[in-house]
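User: Before I run my own analysis I want an independent prediction to cross-check against. Here's the chain; please return only the C-alpha cells and, at the end, one sentence I can use as a sanity check.
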Amino acid sequence: MTTVDTVSTATRRSARFWDRIAERYAKKPVADEASYQRKLRITRSYLRPDMELLEFGCGTGSTALALAPDVARITAIDISSKMVGIARRKAESSGVANVAFLRAAIDDFEAPTGGFDSVLGMSILHLLEDRDAVVAKVHGLLKPGGVFVTSTACIGDFMRSFKLIAPVGRFLGVLPLVKVFTAVDLENSLKEQGFRIAERWQPGKGKSVFIVAVKAS
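Assistant: C-alpha cells:
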C-alpha cells in the first residue's frame, strides 16, 4: 500500500492538539498495564499469521508494534503527524517491517471494501465526530467474518456533565474533541451496523469498555 498522508480539513484542529502533546504522550506509561495486556491477549486470540489488520487512531504505535508478530501486515493510521513520526521511529528502531504508519483520518481513509481481516480502534471512538459513520465504515472495510476490536471510554456512564465541559475545553485548546455516550449506545451502534458482539469486558467502573465485534460471514 502506498504511504500517502491524508487528513481532511475537519480533523485538523484535533490533529493540532495531538501534535502538541505527542512527545509527552509517548513518554507516559500505560495507566493500567494489567488491563492493557489482557486486551492484547484477547485480541491475539482472534488473529492469524496471514491476516491484514488496520488500526485507526494508532497514536505512537505501541499496540500495532505489539501485534505485528501475530499478523502478516498492519496498516496503522492517525491524524497526528507527530504521533505518526514517533511511531515510525519506534518501528525502525525495533526492526519491525510489516507495519505501515500513515497520517490519515478514518473518515478519509481509502481502502478496498472488505480489504481487512481485522480492524482495531483503541481509545478512539469517543474522540470522533460521527461514531456511527465510522462504525459503518469499519464494517465495510472488513471481510465477511472479520473482527472489530475496540476499547472505548463511554463517558456517559459515569460523567454526563462532561458533555458541558468538553466544548469549553476544546475551545480553550486544552481538550480534543470528546463525545459523551454510554456503553449501551456503543453496543447499539455496533449491532445496527450488522456486528455481533462476541466479547465485552470492562476492568471496573469508569474504565474503558473493551469489545470484540464480529461481522457476519
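Sanity check: The two ends are 26 Å apart (CA to CA).
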